[in-house]
Write the structure tokens for this entry.
Amino acid sequence: MEEAENLCNRIAIIHKGKIIENGEKKNILRKLESEALEFDVKSPLHTIPEDLKKFQAKISK
């Protein structure tokens, strides 16, 4: 992404051969300001593990 920031005014993101995002660099980068990870666990979690609390983790149903 760093190269795209330095070289381009517009960015297209391609996933599995399909364009999933296309637009001006500033708008694409604004969308990437936050990150989200989703975990699929074998057994349900009822509380957030202590190590994940610093990442503003939440449990979705």
In short: Residues 2-55 form one domain. The chain has one domain: 2-55. The chain has two helices and two strands. Helices lie at 2-7, 25-31.
